[in-house]
UniProtKB/TrEMBL annotation:
EC number, UniProt record: 3.1.2.6
Keywords: Hydrolase, Metal-binding, Zinc
Superkingdom assignment: Eukaryota
Domain Hydroxyacylglutathione hydrolase C-terminal as annotated: residue spans: 166-244
Name of the protein this chain belongs to: hydroxyacylglutathione hydrolase
PANTHER family: BETA LACTAMASE DOMAIN, TENZING NORGAY, ISOFORM C
Source organism of this protein record: Babesia duncani
A GO molecular-function annotation: hydroxyacylglutathione hydrolase activity
Pfam families: HAGH_C
Length: 244
């Protein structure tokens, strides 16, 4: 799968496929062509992609600290992460040129899991969550997941969503079992399969799209057809997805 770049009103974001189905991201500060990388699982590959894009990386992980001495490494303060020299807490804002990056604790996945809300001085936004899914509840609960999904749902509908894995087709195939007649699910699944065939990433999406086909962001809609409160619906979805 090839690297892809999406220039949006907030920032230029380069998607770098790594490992078998992961994504790393290079968020470029256009003011001075510096960049932050998100989850650089294959540091050399990410560094090469940054060089090809003509940008200098300012943030990464432990291996990147060895390859680029003096680099800033940001990470959650709620769990141990090798190489972190800038521990982050929920609500903290990282200033990066014209961008403000707000840390959002998402403890439903792992106890220290973070989402990063990137906002420019021009008030355009993008967001990172797991695409058409929400991540397993490894160390958290359905209630924590519902809280985070509700928080994200209040953000601008045109906000871009970036994910950690290329699970889109599998996640949408699951969504079909939940809402077999949802036209948004069926349309996005068809499109995603075609992108997969062409070797293209399926990211980013928008928040509006996620609200239309991501079952984990549709618990209020699904509650009309499933007995239980929102947290019970979320738990049921996660258990069903785990077995899918």
């Amino acid at each position: 799968m090839n690297n892809t770049s999406v220039r949006n009103p907030c920032a230029n974001v380069l998607t770098v496929p790594v490992l078998s189905d992961n994504y790393s991201y290079i968020v470029i500060n256009s003011n001075d062509n510096t960049a932050l990388c998100v989850d650089p699982a294959e540091p050399r590959k990410v560094i090469d992609a940054a060089k090809a894009a003509g940008v200098v990386i300012k943030g990464g992980n432990a291996e990147m600290s060895r390859l680029i001495p003096g680099i800033d490494v940001y990470g959650s303060s709620y769990e141990p992460t090798p190489g972190v020299n800038n521990p982050l807490v929920d609500g903290q804002v990282i200033d990066f040129g014209s961008l403000g990056i707000t840390c959002i604790k998402a403890a439903y996945h792992t106890k220290g899991h973070m989402l990063y809300h990137v906002k420019s001085s021009k008030n355009h936004e993008m967001q990172s969550i797991l695409f058409t899914g929400c991540g397993r509840f490894f160390e958290g609960t359905a209630a924590e997941c519902q809280y985070v999904m509700d928080k994200i749902a209040q953000m601008p509908s045109d906000m871009l969503i970036y994910c950690g894995h290329e699970y889109t087709v599998k996640n949408l195939e699951f969504a079909v079992t939940v809402e077999p007649e949802n036209p948004s699910v069926l349309s996005k699944l068809k499109w995603s399969r075609e992108q997969q065939r062409l070797g293209n990433p399926t990211v980013p999406s928008t928040l509006q799209e996620e609200l239309e086909y991501n079952p984990f962001m549709r618990t209020r809609v699904l509650q009309e057809h499933i007995q239980g409160n929102l947290v019970q619906v979320m738990q049921m979805l996660r258990e069903k997805k785990n077995k899918f």
